[in-house]
């Protein structure tokens, strides 16, 4: 894979928490490329460092050593102002706990990133974006009036309205029941097939089986990878790590 | 969210109301015209009283502004801390630091404007209450009422917005530095509570308080008392700023019980240092200000009483009207009598003109009766009296009601005392008899050896009201203490109420964010009543910590008072107003306890599982 094919490139990154004897290498010298236009799942047992890896890749957390590239942009050298601009334009986030703003309607939540960037998104664009996640009729609802699955789809719409280079998803189905999770996974699959780069952390083999490739982490290192595997095989490999 | 907004709004509204009311009363008093038909002497007395009322209202305005600034900024800081996760979320979806800061400052302007809009009418209610209090205490004439001025609208809106903006400034700066990652941590990273700002503010104000304590004894009776009374403000700010260090430590020491409830309360105290500090802050100011000022005031009053008792040498005191000196001296059995006639006067020193109280005395008799030296006071000359304020040498321009005496040399002085008294002593013959005919006269009478007190009293009773020196001193002491208490109530009363509301405000804001925490505790096996008891123990522990820290601030004032009374009178005087201290502690515990029970009761009403399941 050449540099141009990689949505995100991690070169020898490490992230250490604590000092001295108490130091924990949450991410230990990981070199990894996430392919452009593909959906990559990162899996591993609890404490394997998969969330930290995602945070570092998305520029939310500083790495202690190594380099993180978003396309050709070096995130390790970026200042807060540049990272903020990147979050508005080239990076989208979806999280387990939805993280919508409770006082705003679905439409307002979706429009928020563009408004923060100083644009006034048209009502049509917001409506279309919500329609793309199947929530055209929920625009005026506040998060507490929506089911978990619906809230997560609003969060996906919010992430997608900026047409980001990469969508980072941290356990996007972790708080959902299986039918709501299936809807969200279908949505992500459609987006990835349309050329959207997605990096997803999950410990659910069913979710990971929808991705194009799966990377396995243990103790902060990449220990295995697989492409096109089904949920059963993924579950087997995951079990062998624990 | 609504509780946060309402809490901030309430703090601004009441702050604006209090400042506006104090300012309007001050302006009304300062522009008060004496009623028509008063004589020259009465006009001087009237303007004297107005000067005193204006000075007191100036202090009230100062305290109101201090409290408003303190409570608004601490409420804002707390609400911003509670919304940390929201700000992190905004940062996560692309908000820049400047945007977060601007958003908070915009909110502050809206809150300030809205607070002023409600605060202006509320201020009229507060003004009616404050004026009624001052009338009742006798510091203003019976018909006194604050007057509305149209320009106060601009001032109140300006005050509201300026105080909110100032209060939000530090908080906004902090919020802008929230990391986006904090939105992802389930419990929210316990943000550092002891920030650099807190350290710097705490140490600067601690230094200020220490400086006042050190300098107070050098300030003489007037200046020293003023400095001692001002110690509680910087001391309370310092204690409040440093409270996140101390409150949890005190919480550990407090006997909160050994069971699971005590353990939970202790853990909460440690974990929620920010919340504990926010509840404690207005309490510290309340206790520090009320107890500190009252204790210092009582100490100075008692020092004055003691000083007067030590210095007064007399057997009987006669209160009469006019130049009764010769008549008293003529009574058989009277060895000597210092008859002192009180006349109002105006003094010009440099460019400054102020009204003073002057006593026409017999210098030799006065010196004997009050244990002072007063040589050389005769003819066209004056002496600086125990009330101070007049220079002890040089000359002053002296005007009596309807008589300008021109420049008069100051030829002698007696030491200024804590109990105060006349600013000027005048020799006989300087003031024409027509001005003395109606002057209040006080005579300190010493009996000749062997004279019968009863007989002399009976003879003196024909001249005026007679009391033994002991009775007179006791009555004087009671009157002084009463005046001191009245001043304290007038100056502190409504401000204390505001600070108490600030405490309640913090508890309500804090409880609003605790529904999930309470729910988690209940799912973990605690009954609802156990959760309520833990919350009560926790709030009581914070209250006790706040009272102790406020007591520390108050102790600063008391130390300054002790050092000053010792320097001025030679006797260290410390008076603890135990009744007031007890009342303040009881009210604080009762109010925080009740509020915390009510808020946690209402926060635990829904079934816990509903709260834990609902995520936004």
Automatic annotation (TrEMBL), chain A:
Pfam families: ABC_tran. InterPro entries: AAA+_ATPase, ABC_transporter-like_ATP-bd, ABC_transporter-like_CS, ABC_transpr_LolD-like, MacB-like_ATP-bd, P-loop_NTPase. One of its GO terms (molecular function) is ATP hydrolysis activity. Keywords: ATP-binding, Nucleotide-binding, Transport. This is ABC transporter ATP-binding protein. CDD domains: ABC_MJ0796_LolCDE_FtsE (cd03255). Residues 8-242 form the ABC transporter domain. One of its GO terms (cellular component) is membrane protein complex.
TrEMBL record, chain B:
GO terms for cellular component: plasma membrane. Residues 59-177, 490-605 form the ABC3 transporter permease C-terminal domain. Pfam families: FtsX. It is found in: Cell membrane. The chain crosses the membrane at residues 56-81, 108-131, 151-172, 193-216, 236-265, 277-300, 487-513, 534-560, 580-601. InterPro entries: ABC3_permease_C (IPR003838), Macrolide_Exporter_MacB (IPR050250). Keywords: Cell membrane, Membrane, Transmembrane, Transmembrane helix. This is ABC transporter permease. The lineage of its organism: Bacteria, Bacillati, Actinomycetota, Actinomycetes, Micromonosporales.
């Amino acid at each position: 894979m050449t540099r141009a094919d990689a949505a995100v490139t991690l070169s020898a990154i490490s992230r250490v928490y604590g000092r001295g004897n108490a130091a924990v290498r949450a991410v230990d010298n990981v070199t990894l490329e996430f392919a452009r236009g593909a959906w990559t799942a990162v899996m591993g047992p609890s404490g394997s460092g998969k969330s930290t890896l995602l945070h570092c890749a998305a520029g939310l957390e500083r790495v202690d050593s190594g380099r993180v590239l978003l396309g050709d942009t070096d995130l390790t050298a970026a200042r807060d102002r540049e990272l903020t601009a990147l979050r508005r334009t080239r990076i989208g986030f979806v999280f387990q706990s939805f993280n919508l703003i409770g006082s705003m309607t679905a439409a307002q939540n979706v429009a928020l990133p563009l408004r923060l960037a100083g644009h006034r998104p048209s009502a049509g664009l917001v409506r279309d974006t919500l329609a793309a996640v199947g929530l055209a009729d929920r625009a005026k609802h506040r998060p507490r009036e929506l089911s978990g699955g619906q809230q997560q789809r609003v969060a996906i719409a919010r992430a997608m309205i900026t047409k980001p280079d990469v969508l980072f998803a941290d356990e996007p189905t972790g708080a959902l029941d299986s039918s709501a999770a299936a809807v969200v996974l279908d949505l992500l699959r459609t987006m990835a097939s349309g050329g959207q780069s997605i990096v997803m952390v999950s410990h659910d083999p069913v979710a990971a089986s929808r991705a194009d490739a799966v990377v396995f982490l243990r103790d902060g290192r990449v220990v295995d990878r697989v492409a096109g595997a089904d949920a059963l095989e993924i579950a087997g490999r995951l079990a062998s790590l624990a | 969210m609504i509780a946060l907004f309402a809490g901030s709004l309430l703090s601004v509204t009441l702050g604006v109301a209090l400042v506006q009311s104090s300012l309007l009363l001050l302006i009304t008093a300062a522009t008060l015209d004496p009623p028509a038909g008063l004589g020259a002497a009465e006009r001087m007395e009237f303007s004297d009283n107005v000067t005193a009322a204006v000075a007191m209202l100036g202090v009230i305005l100062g305290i109101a502004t201090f409290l408003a600034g303190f409570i608004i900024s601490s409420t804002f800081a707390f609400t911003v801390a509670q919304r940390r996760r929201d700000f992190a979320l905004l940062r996560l979806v692309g908000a820049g630091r400047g945007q977060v800061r601007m958003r908070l400052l915009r909110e502050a302007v809206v809150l300030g404007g809205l607070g002023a809009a409600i605060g202006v009418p509320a201020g009229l209610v507060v003004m009616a209450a404050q004026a009624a209090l001052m009338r009742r205490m006798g510091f203003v004439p019976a018909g006194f009422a604050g007057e509305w001025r149209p320009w106060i609208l601009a001032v109140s809106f300006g005050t509201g917005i300026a105080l909110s903006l100032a209060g939000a400034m530090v908080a906004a700066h902090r919020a802008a530095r929230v990391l986006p990652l904090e939105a992802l941590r389930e419990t929210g990273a316990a943000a550092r509570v002891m920030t650099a700002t807190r350290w710097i503010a705490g140490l600067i104000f601690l230094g200020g308080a220490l400086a006042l304590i050190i300098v107070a004894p050098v300030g003489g009776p007037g200046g020293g008392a003023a400095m001692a009374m001002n110690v509680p403000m910087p001391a309370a700010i310092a204690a409040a700023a440093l409270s996140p260090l101390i409150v949890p430590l005190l919480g550990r020491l407090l006997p909160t019980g050994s069971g699971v409830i005590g353990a939970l309360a202790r853990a909460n105290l440690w974990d929620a240092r920010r919340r504990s500090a926010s509840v404690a802050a207005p309490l510290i100011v309340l206790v520090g200000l009320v107890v500190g000022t009252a204790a210092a005031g009582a100490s100075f009053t008692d020092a004055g009483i003691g000083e007067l008792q030590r210095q007064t040498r007399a057997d009987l005191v006669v209160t009469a009207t006019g130049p009764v000196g010769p008549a008293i001296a003529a009574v058989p059995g009277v060895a000597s009598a210092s008859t002192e006639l009180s006349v109002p006067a105006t003094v010009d020193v440099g460019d400054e003109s102020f009204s003073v109280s002057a006593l026409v005395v017999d210098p030799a008799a006065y010196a004997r009766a009050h244990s002072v030296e007063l040589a050389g006071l005769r003819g066209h000359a004056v002496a600086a009296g125990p009330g101070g304020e007049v220079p002890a040498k040089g000359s002053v321009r002296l005007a009596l009601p309807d008589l300008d005496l021109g420049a008069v040399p100051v030829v002698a002085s007696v030491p200024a005392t804590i109990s105060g008294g006349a600013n000027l002593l005048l020799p006989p013959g300087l003031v024409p008899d027509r001005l003395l005919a109606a002057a209040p006269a006080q005579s300190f009478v010493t009996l000749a050896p062997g004279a019968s007190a009863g007989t002399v009293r009976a003879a003196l009773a024909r001249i005026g009201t007679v009391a033994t020196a002991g009775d007179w001193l006791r009555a004087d002491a009671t009157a002084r203490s009463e005046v001191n208490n009245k001043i304290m109530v007038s100056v502190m009363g409504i401000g204390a109420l505001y600070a108490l509301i600030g405490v309640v405000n913090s508890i309500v804001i804090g409880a609003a964010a605790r529904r999930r925490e309470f729910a988690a505790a209940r799912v973990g096996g605690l009954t609802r009543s156990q959760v309520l008891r833990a919350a009560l123990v926790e709030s009581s522990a914070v209250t006790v910590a706040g009272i102790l820290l406020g007591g520390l601030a108050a102790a600063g004032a008391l130390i300054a008072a002790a050092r000053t009374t010792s320097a001025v009178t030679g006797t260290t005087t410390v008076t603890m107003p135990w009744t007031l201290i007890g009342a303040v502690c009881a009210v604080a515990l009762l109010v925080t306890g009740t509020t915390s029970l009510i808020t946690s009761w209402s926060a635990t009403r829904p079934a816990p599982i509903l709260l834990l399941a609902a995520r936004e």
